[in-house]
Amino acid sequence: MRRNEFLKTLGALAVGATSPPWAHAATTLKMLIPANPAGGWDMTGRALGKALLEAKAFDTVHYDNKGGAAGALGLTQFVNTSRNDAHSVMVMGAVMLSGIIGNKPPVDLQSCTPIARLTNEYNVFVVPAQSPLRTMKDVVAQLRKEPASVSWGGGSRGSTEHIAASMLARHVGVDPKKVNYVAFRGGGEAVAAILGGHVTVGGSGYSEFAEQIAAGRMRAIAVTSQKRLPGLGIPTMKEQGFDVVLGNWRGLYGAPGLTARQRATLTEWVLKATKTKAWTDALSSNGWSAAPLVGREFDDFVEYEFASLRAIMYLSGMA
Predict the structure, then answer these.
(1) CA distance 113 to 283
(2) 60 burial class (0-12, 13-18, 19+ CB within 10 angstroms)?
């Protein structure tokens, strides 16, 4: 889809009508979440669904969780079942790109319709409260001594926490291919493994660990942001001497085969949803950073991310 065509259609919707033509009909949005419940994609999708309802874009939202292979299984289902359906969307993000690179699914993300980047969330690394490892420097000392003895638990292989662990290993002189990474299909499984001491370190977005950290069952030892996240007091990798900065962005795609007008309509509603109280409350409570990006800029961003992740994953032996 050409940029001018999309922008012209989006502008016409904004100027020529206060709402899309189907806005007053009883409508249901079908949202494919390519992960199991309780993880970052699930939380993002359900928060967006609530915001879309508040914005009166739809009457109901139906959620369908399909986890596995870093989102590749969900992507395959979405492509095969939603073609030309303007009321179907899929949550996606950086992890899906790495999943496509690593798993080579039989379908292509490019066949779907880009709608928007929504948020950015930095990875937080945690250890169980009873762990003898108190800081990331303690973890690195053990990693240097015996890489296999440090198990890193998180999302699917190639997730941002996996990539961050590999970046850290490379930074401290350890072969990133020796990183002992344990992948879980959903946030709930990862949390249980961390609390049970089945992995040395856990990684994910702050939102997935917030409850456990607040209850004192987990200890946050590092975050991959440039500066400390407001109000959390978690030390960054950089301030501990490790040059690892990496964000986990999340976004939304529409079904394959949508017209420029259908894409513009969905984009308009998503942007309206991001102005609602439901959405701003979700950003605040989950520690997400608003990162809206639409149109050609979002298309270009995804293309650049694909190239960057391919390079990192190749060096780390993931692709």
Answers:
(1) 25
(2) exposed
Q: What is the pLDDT of residues 108-150, one digit of tens each?
A: 999 999 999 999 999 999 999 999 999 999 999 999 999 999 9
Q: Give exposure, 68-102, as e/b (b: 16+ Cβ within 10 Å).
A: bbbbbbbbbbbbeebeebbbbbbbbbbbbbbbbbb
Q: What is the pLDDT of residues 48-81, one digit of tens each?
A: 999 999 999 999 999 999 998 889 999 999 999 9
Contact, 91 vs 121, CB < 8 A? no
As a whole number of Å, the CA-based R_g of the chain is 20
Do 133 and 192 meet the contact criterion of CB atoms below 8 Å apart?
no
Q: What is the pLDDT of residues 176-225, one digit of tens each?
A: 999 999 998 767 889 999 999 999 999 998 888 999 999 999 999 999 99
Give the global pTM. 0.78
Q: Specify whether the CB–CB gap between 123 and 204 falls below 8 A.
A: yes
Tokens of 107: 């379908």
**Alpha helical stretches, state H, 147-294:** 160-171, 187-195, 206-214, 260-273, 277-286
CA 157 to the chain's CA centroid: 14
- Within a 10 A sphere around the Cβ of 67, how many other Cβ atoms? 22
Instruction: Report pLDDT for 17.
Output: 44
